[in-house]
């Protein structure tokens, strides 16, 4: 038995010496010290050893196990140290090299423009509200004084889910919901994505964004609307900006107007940017139609108000002098990193 244990020890030490990777060391451990290893087999054969010899044989087995484990552990540490040193040599860092530039993204031009508009109106006491993009015909059209048969309800302009549900064509639907559920005074802007059946070109898209504003209170007049939009234009385009109101027609406002701002590029003198007119159209507005107030549960004899709407992409195009709306959606990093 002593001879057998000696042979096991010598064979284990030779196997350890021959191992060149940690995996082979583990194989040696399993082969000699594992549950089915050679030392375990010796212990299982102790029943064949004379009772008086068993303590001595058991001690020899434990000494052999301890010797093998000691050499295994020392070899493992030396091997790991050598591997670590070799890895450090291969992964050496040259601290004199310039660091890699961390490419950090930033807000999209549309988002930058939206945040600026929200900042302006929140500063004037407005609340930012949102609503569903898939909307009932009732809120998208009827409560905005656009009855059946109106040209705006033509299927060539609107995406219909069914006869009662559409993809909203304007965020005015949010205004109708606010008026229906909120007691005046009301001061809100409603930004969001809208959908119309337009061909894609430099100035049109079937999906774009609008920002609409609504004020309802006692004794609100067109003068309040004009003053509000003048402040907005000066904050957005510069303190020298002037505004001009041109009569127009919208079903949900009366009277209605289109609003132009003096060209911030040439100061109103006329240039390529404003096509020589000195003015740039930016939004539509008007006093909320009394019938719209009635349909939303607000007494037009007590309250009045104004509404306005501007295309978010139009603001971005003007502010950053972009001449093609499609550039905003192509996700070309060379274009977007300019903002």
Quick structural summary:
It contains 11 helices and 9 strands. The chain has about 350 residues and is α+β, with helices and mostly antiparallel strands.
Descriptors:
BirA Bifunctional Protein, domain 2; alpha+beta; tRNA binding; 19% strand; 11 helices; phenylalanine-tRNA ligase activity; 339 residues; ATP-binding; 40% helix; single chain; seven-stranded mixed sheet; EC 6.1.1.20; two-stranded antiparallel ribbon; magnesium
Characterization of the model:
It is a single chain. The protein has helices at residues 2-18, 22-33, 38-44, 54-90, 109-123, 137-140, 172-181, 222-237, 290-295, 312-319, 333-336; strands at 127-128, 134-136, 165-167, 186-195, 207-217, 243-250, 253-262, 279-288, 304-311. With 339 residues, it is an alpha+beta fold. The chain has two domains: 2-90; 109-336, Bira Bifunctional Protein, Domain 2 (BirA Bifunctional Protein, domain 2, 2-Layer Sandwich), CATH 3.30.930. The strands form two sheets. A seven-stranded mixed beta sheet has the order 1-4-5-9-8-7-6, sandwiched between helices. Strands 2-3 form a two-stranded antiparallel sheet. A hairpin with a 2-residue loop joins strand 6 and strand 7. Helix 1 (2-18) runs antiparallel to helix 2, helix 1 (2-18) packs parallel to helix 4 (54-90) and helix 2 (22-33) runs antiparallel to helix 4 (54-90). The longest helix has 37 residues, at 54-90. It starts with a helix and ends with a helix.
């Amino acid at each position: 038995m002593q001879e057998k244990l000696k042979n096991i020890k010598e064979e284990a030490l030779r196997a350890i010496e021959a191992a060149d990777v940690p995996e082979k060391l583990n194989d040696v451990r399993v082969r000699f010290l594992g549950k089915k290893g050679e030392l375990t087999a010796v212990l299982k054969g102790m029943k064949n050893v004379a009772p008086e010899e068993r303590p001595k044989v058991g001690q020899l087995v434990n000494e052999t196990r301890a010797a093998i484990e000691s050499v295994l552990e020392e070899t493992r540490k030396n091997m790991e140290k050598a591997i670590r040193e070799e890895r450090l040599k291969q992964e050496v860092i040259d601290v004199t090299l310039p660091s890699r530039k961390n490419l950090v993204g930033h807000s999209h031009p549309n988002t930058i423009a939206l945040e600026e508009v929200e900042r302006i109106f929140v500063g004037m006491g407005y609340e930012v509200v949102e609503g569903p993009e898939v909307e009932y015909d009732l809120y998208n059209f009827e409560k905005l004084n656009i009855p059946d048969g109106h040209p705006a309800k033509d299927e060539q302009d609107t995406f219909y889910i069914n006869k009662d549900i559409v993809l909203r064509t304007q965020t005015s639907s949010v205004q109708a919901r606010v008026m229906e559920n909120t007691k005046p005074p009301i001061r809100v802007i409603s930004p969001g994505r809208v959908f119309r059946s337009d061909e894609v070109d430099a100035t049109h898209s079937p999906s774009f964004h609008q920002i609409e504003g609504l004020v309802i209170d006692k004794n609100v007049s067109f003068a309040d609307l004009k003053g509000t939009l003048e402040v907005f234009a000066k904050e957005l385009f510069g303190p020298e900006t002037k505004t001009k109101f041109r009569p127009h027609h919208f079903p949900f406002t009366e009277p209605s107007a289109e609003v132009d701002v003096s060209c911030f590029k040439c100061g109103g003198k006329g240039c390529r940017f404003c096509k020589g007119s000195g003015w740039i159209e930016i939004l539509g507005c008007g006093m909320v139609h009394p019938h719209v107030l009635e349909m939303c549960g607000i007494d037009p004899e007590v309250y009045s108000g104004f509404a306005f709407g501007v295309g978010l992409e139009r603001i971005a195009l003007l502010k950053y002098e972009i001449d093609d709306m499609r550039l905003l959606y192509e996700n070309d990093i060379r274009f977007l990193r300019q903002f």
